[in-house]
Structures are given as C-alpha cells and as structure tokens.
Amino acid sequence: MSVGTVGDGERTDAAVAVPAGGAGWSTRLATRADVEVIAELRAAVMRADLVRLGRYDEHRVRQRFRDAFCEQYTSVVVVDGQLAGCVTVRPVQDRQWLEHFYLAPHHQGRGLGSAVLRRVLAQADAQGTAVGLNVLQGSAARRLYERHGFVVEAEDPVDVFMVRPPGGLPRPAAGA
Question: Among 23, 41, 139, 165, whose Cα sits 20 to 30 Å from the Cα of 105?
Fold first, then answer.
C-alpha cells in the first residue's frame, strides 16, 4: 500500500495483497459511497473509549467522520473482498497526519493494523516526513503506535498527541 502524496501532491494508493494475520489485504481509494459504512465502523470502534471518557454521542461520532472525509487522502482496507477498515493520511504543516485509522473489531489483534501502519510509515519515511496523530486517553491503540516508534508530544484530558519522526528515530531534545 502506498498512501500519501507524491511530487505535486497527487494521491497515490496502490493495492498490494500481503499476508496479515492469515488473510490477504489490499487498499483502494475511498469514495463517497464509503462514507456511511466508515461512519458506522467509526462509531462501533470508538464507542467503548468514548463512553469511558463520557464523550459518546450517537450522532456526533458519525458526523465528525462525515465532516472530515476527504477522498483524496483516505484509503479503504479490504480483506477477502470486504471493507475491513480505513486510514486517512494527509499533509499538515511539516508532517503527515494519520487519522481515521479504524479496523473492524474482528480484524483487530491479528497483525493487520501493524501491517497497514508499517506501509503508511514506510511512505512517510521515503518522503522524510514525520507522522503525527492523536489517540483517545486510555485507548489500547496507543500501544500499537508506541510499538511503531510514536512518542507523546502533548496530551489533554481526552486526547494524547503523538509523533513519529522520519525513520522512527528519536527527535532531538529542545535546545540540543
């Protein structure tokens, strides 16, 4: 999978079948027809963490995805011909911003998330670009990101903001 931008900002997204947890996977460009399916997936995946944080709202959890959806930067993860998840990677200032990275619950914990994330990070590394994201406080997804070289940049009562420098190398200390 190649997710991101090339040269003049044109989106690239090549489908690549790779074993992940015993199942082949690929990506394809997201389309407007995917919005409602992904909005439902987001609601299901984020529900427990949002409820725990006292922030779950049946309408808002879906609407936030609808409002932010951008075909140019969103890829659908496909396993056995079925939508298994999605990932959005868009340029923001000096980095790529990883957002809307959701996998259906029955695909979690089987290596698929790591496989998708490795591809996203390889693309950013090839561009020499850092990758930033935010994850909900207490989310199990934070461990996935930490395993792949992300470090905490800032946090608040709801979100943890993380960054991974190009190549996963530690960032120099301020003033160094």
Answer: 165
